[in-house]
Write a structure and sequence with these properties.
This protein is an alpha+beta fold. It is built from three helices and six strands; from the N terminus they run αβββαβαββ. It has a six-stranded mixed sheet with strand order 1-2-3-4-6-5. Strand 1 and strand 2 form a beta hairpin. It is globular. The protein starts with 12 loop residues before the first helix and ends in a 12-residue tail after the last strand.
Length: 150
C-alpha cells in the first residue's frame, strides 16, 4: 500500500476539522466524547481597558487553560492569580476533576507552583528550544450525591 503525504502550507481549517472529527468519533464510540466547551475570562481596569485574560475549555472532566495573559503595565498586581482562582472556582462548580495548563521555563513555572499546581510533564530543553512544562491541580473528589462523609 502506498500512502502519499503532503504538507499543507499555511494550514487548512476544513482539513483540521476533518482530522478532529476522526479523533472525536473514536472517543464518542468509546463513550468519552470530547465536546470541548469554551470558558473565557476577561479582566479590565477602571478605564475599561483590557488588563488580562484567560482562554480555556472544558474537556474530559478537566479545565484546560490554553492561554493566560496579562497586559505589560498590569503585571504584578495579582490579576493572573485572580483569573486562575476564578477559573478554578468555575471548574469546581462544574464538577470537574481539576485544571491543567502548560508554560515554558522562561515564563511562569514558579508562579504556578506557588499556586499549588504540580508538574506533570516536561519537554527537555534542546539547543535553543526551551523546556515546556505541564502543570495540574486536582480537586478533592466529592461523591456524586454531594455528601462529605461527616
Amino acid at each position: 500500500m502506498t500512502i502519499e503525504m503532503t504538507v499543507i502550507e499555511g494550514g487548512d481549517e476544513d482539513f483540521a476539522d476533518t482530522v478532529e472529527f476522526m479523533i472525536d468519533s473514536v472517543a464518542e464510540t468509546l463513550g468519552k466524547p470530547f465536546d470541548p466547551e469554551p470558558f473565557h475570562l476577561k479582566a479590565t481596569d477602571a478605564d475599561g481597558e483590557l488588563a488580562g485574560g484567560l482562554v480555556a475549555h472544558k474537556v474530559q472532566q478537566w479545565l484546560f487553560i490554553k492561554l493566560l495573559g496579562i497586559a505589560e503595565g498590569q503585571r504584578g498586581k495579582g490579576i493572573g492569580r485572580s483569573l486562575l482562582a476564578r477559573a478554578e472556582d468555575f471548574a469546581r462548580q462544574e464538577g470537574l476533576v481539576g485544571v491543567y495548563l502548560d508554560t515554558f521555563e522562561f515564563q511562569a513555572p514558579r508562579f504556578y507552583e506557588g499556586l499549588g499546581y504540580t508538574e506533570c510533564g516536561r519537554l527537555p530543553a534542546i539547543a535553543d528550544a526551551p523546556q515546556r512544562i505541564w502543570f495540574a491541580k486536582t480537586f478533592e473528589a466529592v461523591p456524586a450525591d454531594g455528601t462529605t462523609g461527616s
